[in-house]
Amino acid sequence: MAQTIASTNARQMIDAGAIRGASIIGTPGGWSVMLKIGMTERPLGTQRTDKPRQWRSLDTCIDYLKTTLHLVRFDLLDASNYSAHDVTRPKRADAAERMKAAHAAVAHDAWFRAEVEQAITEADDPATEWISHEEASASWAKKRAQLAKRVAGGA
Question: Mean pLDDT, to the nearest integer, of 79-99?
């Protein structure tokens, strides 16, 4: 595979006039860009790897080239190998399920915060009646005894 050119280097080369042209090439799963340097062509690469950069949408590819690299003319648009589905790209989880989970988490967080706020408000209210630990323990002991009596009577 040919060595790629990172976007930052491509931008500098375009400003210096070293890049003579660009072609947009359709690939399985998206679009990539080949930059012409002298008599050779090299792919526009990703930022941290030596892999060709790929866009799923032709519109986003062209928008990137226009806004980031300031390329507005292309020598070739080759869609002969383009297909919308890329069998090599790993499948992502269903976006609808991810969004449902995210919305549920946000709703739960809002509910929880409202419950905590209500509890703090009740605790700060001077009219709140407090029950001591001894009273609470005695009440639960009484309920446990009643339950044990019911269980013993039914068995």
Answer: 75
- The edge-to-edge listing of strands for the beta sheet with 30-37 is 40-43, 30-37, 19-27, 76-78
- Cα separation of 43 and 48, whole Å? 14
Render pLDDT for 58-88 as a digit per residue (tens, 0 to 9): 999 999 999 988 888 888 888 888 877 665 6
Compute how many other C-beta atoms are within 10 angstroms of the C-beta atom of residue 133. 7
Are 39 and 21 in contact by the 8 Å Cβ rule? The answer is: no
Distance CA 124, CA 119 (A): 9
As a whole number of angstroms, the distance between CA 46 and CA 16 comes to: 21
Residues 6+ apart with CB under 8 A from 130: none
- Dihedral sign computed on CA atoms, order 46, 88, 55, 76: positive
H or E segment to which residue 119 belongs: helix 95-124
Read off the tokens for 38.
């002298």
Of 30, 39, 28, 40, residue with least CA distance to 3? 40
CA distance 74 to 11: 15
